[in-house]
Design a protein that fits this description.
Length: 145
């Protein structure tokens, strides 16, 4: 579902000392994701198919893959189970990858993670929503070294 009136809720950038293709693989491969995505298992289908994140403690997110353009862009809907009486906005998350050209460094890639919502985020989820992607990006960079 791509909505016209999305609001940018958060944006995180990280530069990783790996080729673009390696960063892409880390984002879509379950074996990699468990090392940086809070111990979660990740399943990424093709466009129109399911996107799932699941931890052993029961936390998870589900969505639909909206765009899968290897090795540059992945966009999906993102939904978490909210407590009774709490309404979450519709949400989409996009990973954008681009090469970083540097004469001093080897292959490097920049990852930009953007989270879009179509309404207000309940206060009890707002901080986690803004800081979670930053934490995941830092963990990914540390994992890939």
């Amino acid at each position: 579902m791509i909505v016209q009136n999305w609001l940018l809720n958060s944006e995180t950038e990280v530069v990783v000392d790996v080729p673009v293709e390696r960063l892409w693989t880390a984002l879509i491969a379950d074996d990699d994701a468990r090392h940086y995505f809070m111990g979660a298992r990740v399943s990424v289908g093709e466009e129109g198919e399911a996107y799932r994140v699941a931890r052993e403690d029961g936390w998870g997110a589900t969505g639909i893959v909206l765009a899968k353009e290897a090795p540059r862009r992945l966009r999906m809907t993102w939904g978490i189970k909210a407590p009774p009486g709490v309404t979450m906005p519709n949400c989409e998350v996009e990973y954008a990858i681009e090469p970083v050209v540097s004469a001093q460094a080897g292959a490097r890639a920049k990852l930009t993670i953007r989270e879009y919502v179509d309404g207000p985020i309940p206060p009890e989820f707002a901080k986690a929503s803004r800081t979670g992607w930053s934490m995941i990006a830092r963990s990914l960079k540390a994992y890939l070294g």
